[in-house]
Amino acid sequence: MKIAVRMDDITPDMNWENFYFFLNLFEEAGITPLLGIVPENRDENLKCEAPHKDFYRIMDELKQKGYCFAMHGCFHLYTTKCGGSFPLNHFSEFAGHSFEKQRKMLAFGKEKLKEYGIETDIFMAPAHSYDKNTLKALKELGFDRMTDGFGKKPYRSRGMVFYPISFRLSSSLKKKKGMTTMVIHANTVTEADKKRYRRIFREYGEDMISYSEYLEETPVARTVLGRMWEYAAAQIKFLLTSLRNR
Known about the structure:
By secondary structure, this protein is an alpha/beta fold.
């Protein structure tokens, strides 16, 4: 399994110590990830410290090194209890809202990032949750790629290209053919987690690829049956996670 990496919840007020911990791991492994930047963070859970005044300068430096960027929602606020088209979670910033409201939020986020010199056609949905209105609005605004979905390689569906993820860390480390994305939330990583990630990067370093390499992979077509399978798989994973957390 070839493993690309994405980091969610990238904001000026994130946990910078943890962020730099992972930058060092990426450099040692010789890879560059996908960073999901929240255009205007209003989620108190993501506010770990005072905003870094040089945030966008640092992002530009990482871009020069080959890092990729995705727009990670708009405000990162969960305002519905809707799982949408990929129900790994039953809450969302977008799914369940009207097309008009979603388009307005997405246009705001895109313009906000553009003001700081960040332009991307990749979208990263908070909580992995989106619906058909999200996809319609994204396409109108020039986004044509999503970091989400299940599968062994990128696939084309509903006018977008999806780059599959592994919902759980252990799933991204399975020895099988194909490609996937390891999802990292650096803000909540503990010292014990850091030890685990150091071990993983040592043991699986040869299997890791830069996200830019993932983007170069030719996507396959996904059928209606394939979308039905994906929806069912996401729903089952949600139910299993809910049972474990009881």
